[in-house]
Amino acid sequence: MSPDVSRLTTRTARLVLRPFETEDFDAYRVYHQRADVYRFLYSAPPEPETLRSNFEAARRPRLTCDGDTLRLAVERADDAAVIGEVLLKLADSAARQAEVGYIFNPRFSGVGYATEAVRAMIGIGFRTFGFHRIFARIDTRNHGSVGIVERLGLRREAHFIQNDRFDGVWGDEFVYATLASEWQAAQG
Description:
Blueprint: E1 10-11, E2 15-18, H1 25-32, H2 35-38, H3 48-58, E3 69-76, E4 82-92, E5 97-104, H4 113-127, E6 133-139, H5 143-151, E7 155-166, E8 169-179, H6 180-187
Parallel strand pairs: 5-6
Antiparallel strand pairs: 1-2, 2-3, 3-4, 4-5, 6-8, 7-8
């Protein structure tokens, strides 16, 4: 199911999605150290040693076994600035399902970069990996992320009530999804 992901690169109108490189660590660290980025991820920003370990894992992408995650750096094409990342997590290889996710530096929000990058990553999931269904799990209070998946035409399939807990606070979650056939029809 998995082609060589170590060289997987795609371009959009304004972005390049590509594997992380050693030189990307500073940009990666900037947005991964922000509490406002992690507030909807049900965890605190990672400690420095964990952050470095997570980055090194992102540099060795795999998408062959359930639970594997492919993370691609999102780089602006005009200045090569790394502004965030998109990911596909192999949720169930037998059912050909993956979860799409994304983390962006808020400094670059509000101009459609995340929507553009997520669209490209979903396309990669269907075209390159042959997934049948791709879904996104989103904290219901994360209005920006809800807007991204709704603009892309993903269907809200579930609303889980108090299904996660962080720092003693319960959180609700939406699940949005699209099928390969729906995605292909919507993209023309």
